[in-house]
Amino acid sequence: MRSPTRFRSAAAAALLGLLAAFAGPGGGSAQAADEPATTVGDVTGFDAEGPVYHLTAGRAEARVSFVSTETFRLELAPDGKFTDPTGDDIVLPQGDAPRTKWADKGDRYELSTSKVTLRAYKSPLRFALYRADGSRVWAESKGLSWTKDTTTQSLARGADEQFYGAGMQNGRGNTSHRGKKVEVSVDYNWDDGGHPNSVPFYLSSEGYGVFRNTYAPNTYDFAEPVTATAKEQRFDAYYFAGRGGDAAKDVIGQYTKLTGKPFLPPVYGMEIGDADCYLHNANRGERHTLDALKVADGYVENDMPNGWMLVNDGYGCGYENLAETSKGLAERKMKMGLWTEDGLDKIAEQVKAGQRVAKLDVAWVGDGYKKALDGCKDAYKGIEDNSDARGFTWAPESWSGAQRCGVQWSGDQSGGWEYIRWQIPTYAGSTMSGLAYTTGDVDGIFGGSPKTYVRDLQWKMLLPVTMTMDGWAASDKQPFRQGEPYTSINRKYLKLHESLIPYLYSYGHEATKTGVGAVRPLALEYPDDPKAATDAAKYEFLTGEDFLVAPVYKDTTTRDGIYLPKGTWTDYWSGRTYQGPTTVDGYSAPLDTLPLFVRGGATVPMWPGGIRSYQDRTADSPLAWDIYPQGSSSFELYEDDGVTRQHRDGKYATQRADVRAPRSGAGDVRVRIGASKGTYQGKQSSRPYAFTLHTGDAPSRVELGGHGLPRLTSKSAYDSARQGWFYDRDDRGGVVRVKTAALRTDRAFELRLDDTSAVGGAVPGAPAAVHVPAGQELGAGTPGKVAVDITAGTKDATGVEATLDAPEGWTAGTAKADRIPAGTTRRVEVALTPAKDADIGEQPLTATVRHRSAGQERTAVQRFALGVMPEAPAKDTWASDMKWLKSTNGYGPAERDRSNGESGADDGHPLTLAGKTYEKGIGTHADSVIEVYPGGRCSKFTADVGIDDEINGYGEVAFSVEADGKVLWTSPKVTGASATVPVDVDVRGARHVELKATDTNGSKSGDHADWAAAEFTCS
């Protein structure tokens, strides 16, 4: 966090203050504790008008209007006068109302469609909803109540009932809200606990949902009873009764039928975007809008996908030379976007000059959410009215209905591990409110580090949309700025995302029909799994039905607590299979590895070839199918021109892939690719196909259309062949690769693999598994050994040979074992010598174990991180002169021999404690950790610690020294007014020492924690 002297510009702060001033009332509990509430009384009148029913209770009047057989609207006017502030802003025309009937049952009226019955009890007026089979959906625990400025509904809570929704709830939402209070309002808090892009809608595991038709703030308290309060003296809610085992999806579908289905972005919108201010940027010096093209060249030169660039993203930035900028970006296969800070009055001329993306500022929230929704719709319409492109907008504050015109992102944050942690549950949780496209900036708009950038970008490449923002930070944050190995890792994941666009785009089309976005909490796909609603699944999500993503959100190379639900799950990188439900601990995840698993039965369409842009696709480009055969499965690929709106007039095509395979074990696999149905501009009339089938066992024969394909004997032969197949034992546990010549897309064809298996192999569990214990270290240039644990599967592993991939300049040996009995583990040690000039710190390597089991030659692999250590000090050494193995800091980088500065390096001031200036030391900002490597050669650590004088009495922290996981020393609480605290710690034998500064009062304001004169005594 920033210190009191380290804020954004005064102009930005003033703008935020202005926004807060006219944003209207915020959230919080809407009903004052000392204000008595009035509860609706007995029914005094009843009137039926077709699908609309009126019930009076004294002055109050309730109105029930049926929209469909499973959707209805319930209103209450305490004074008998109905109002509708939202008008036709949110709810769309719904067509003819259903047939209804009513009956007087003595103690209640029953208002019914063919699917549901709403009971209106008479004394007092109280509502309950039942399905046609007599099962209860929900029931009020008491009648509707109100104060002078609130209305509240109270519902009985089921014993195991879970709750989701309320829009974007930062840090929450993909697991149940049960027992929690959730605010639905603007609060301009874009960090953990904030709720940008709120939606006054929630759904229940009991199979129903509620949408509060209002612009007023809402508070949902999912206690017993559940209370739903809106800050207005009118009650207006729509109810949706879901059907069957996919009741939650059905509820989302009904809600988005009412308020609008999600839009389908242009295909370039699914590529990563880039945002910055290029005109007179105070943080970058004098620049011009055309300078954006130099940054665009960086993506091209680094072979990185990028679909669009916002060229004026900064308060007061402005722009110039729009048409020329747009033309230059188009030459680099990118579109131009603009930030609409200054309004939409010029959008027509901007779009005609080439604008295709409109980002809305927080100012668009205006007076409540109507302005936010109008801004989204108007910007979207402005693009479509002045071009043939699809509307594409972004907003940090929106409301119900915005899913039909824009992407919602979680606002301005500082990058870091905590940022990654709380963002993981945010976006899958948003899907439960019909928000199909939600995201956050890669590594925030300031702060962060190369390592957190990589970790954040990795998992966000499994979201349909995202962008990186520059200009606010001390240095630019494009994915090619961090240097190696970070640039290569970022490229790997950007290209993975690009290859998955056919899969993501198909789910985008599905969302226009169902309202359900691609990014999903486990509870949506596994509603009967008791762990899916709990914290066991909080820090993971599904992309579509097939990918389970478990991001790394700590500075570590292992990931614990990965929950895999029922089914077979395959590690995307190694091919190792797991049977769920199970929890995976100790998953090896070096910096270049995102824990990613694929569901058995997955059939994933992809673009192969490592392309940088969708525009790299030609009429001759292949389509790939990545298949994990298990039982009967299918996937329907959706394709259109990707840019125009012609798909809304039926100009699109679908192609279905059907796979038949054994449920488990040995058997034949059949893949039928149906004819592509439909047409659009640029559709391929023919194309080659490539298949990757994760079988774990080689087939005896592969046929295409009844004719045998040639078996190729090597990867190089396969790559150069026009068509054929190759079994690659070394690729992810064993895959069958098949390629075809160009085939007509208007004709179906079948691929047949004889005598192979379902995913997991002909003998499930037979392959050995490899695990490299974490925490192993070797010195640069120093010979050593790496321990590798090999666990045989259900069959003995024989002829075992373990090797390590060795980067250039390293040398590696081989370890062998004749036989490892089934179910047992043997540790082998592989000789390895890092290069003398090897990079210090975590180095990702791969352990490869080749072996034979169950009659097949097999290969098991494990990616792992080896710690490469610097030479340990041989004499007394300043901590600021040592190589830092870890450097995490509360704001900006930790500084060597300077106090903590802004977000750039070397921008601090001389270290000063209690009037004394120090030449040597470390300047941090709590919370911070500096890790160094004394390597057991040092006996003592000394320092003077305190909060730097530049803070003028602010701040409150505690210091600690830890060695090899043990706390050796902790300071008392230190404030900006405290005396300097001396440190003298015995560190004999310690290999790793961590210097920590921890915030102690929760504010993190002014916590400039200095380790002055920090020195190790060594020999």
Terminal Cα span:
38 Å
Global structural class: mainly beta
| Residues in helix, % | 10-25%
Radius of gyration in whole Å, from Cα?
A: 30 Å
Strand content: 35-45%
Shape: globular
Number of strands: 73
Q: With helices defined by DSSP (H or I, 4 residues minimum), what is the helix count?
A: 12
Mean pLDDT, to the nearest integer, reads 94
- What does the largest sheet look like? 10 strands, antiparallel
**Residue runs with pLDDT of under 50 for 5 or more positions:** 1-32
3D structure, described in words:
With 1019 residues, the chain is mainly beta. The chain has 12 helices and 73 strands. Strands 1, 6, 7, 8, 9, 10, 11, 13, 16 and 17 form a 10-stranded antiparallel beta sheet that branches. Strands 2-3-4-5-18-15-14-12 form an 8-stranded antiparallel beta sheet. Strands 26-24-23-22-21-20-19-28 form an 8-stranded parallel beta sheet. Helix 8 packs parallel to helix 9 (486-499). The longest helix is centred in the middle third of the chain and has 16 residues, at 370-385. The radius of gyration is 30 Å and the shape is globular. Residues 1-32 have low confidence and may be disordered. Residues 646-667, 889-912 are annotated as: Disordered.
Q: Tags for this entry?
A:
ten-stranded antiparallel sheet, eight-stranded antiparallel sheet, about 15% helix, globular, signal
Which secondary structure elements does this structure contain, and how are they paired or packed?
Blueprint: H1 10-22, E1 38-39, E2 45-49, E3 52-57, E4 60-66, E5 71-77, E6 101-104, E7 108-112, E8 116-121, E9 126-131, E10 136-146, E11 151-155, E12 163-167, E13 181-184, E14 198-204, E15 208-212, E16 218-221, E17 226-230, E18 235-241, H2 247-259, E19 273-275, H3 292-301, E20 308-310, H4 322-331, E21 335-339, H5 347-352, E22 355-359, H6 370-385, E23 393-395, E24 406-409, E25 414-415, H7 417-431, E26 438-439, E27 446-447, H8 450-460, E28 467-469, H9 486-499, H10 501-514, E29 519-520, H11 522-525, E30 541-543, E31 547-549, E32 558-559, E33 562-571, E34 577-584, E35 587-588, E36 596-599, E37 603-606, E38 623-627, E39 632-639, E40 653-660, E41 666-673, E42 677-678, E43 686-687, E44 689-693, E45 701-704, E46 707-708, H12 715-720, E47 724-728, E48 735-739, E49 743-744, E50 749-757, E51 769-771, E52 777-779, E53 784-791, E54 797-804, E55 811-812, E56 814-820, E57 825-833, E58 841-853, E59 856-869, E60 877-878, E61 886-888, E62 895-896, E63 911-913, E64 916-918, E65 921-925, E66 928-932, E67 938-947, E68 956-963, ...
Parallel strand pairs: 19-20, 19-28, 20-21, 21-22, 22-23, 23-24, 24-26, 25-27, 38-44, 52-59
Antiparallel strand pairs: 1-10, 2-3, 3-4, 4-5, 5-18, 6-7, 7-8, 8-9, 9-10, 10-11, 11-17, 12-14, 13-16, 14-15, 15-18, 16-17, 29-30, 30-31, 31-36, 32-35, 33-34, 33-36, 37-38, 39-40, 40-41, 40-42, 41-50, 43-49, 44-48, 45-46, 45-50, 47-48, 51-53, 53-57, 54-56, 54-58, 55-57, 58-59, 60-73, 61-66, ...
Helix pairs in contact: 8-9
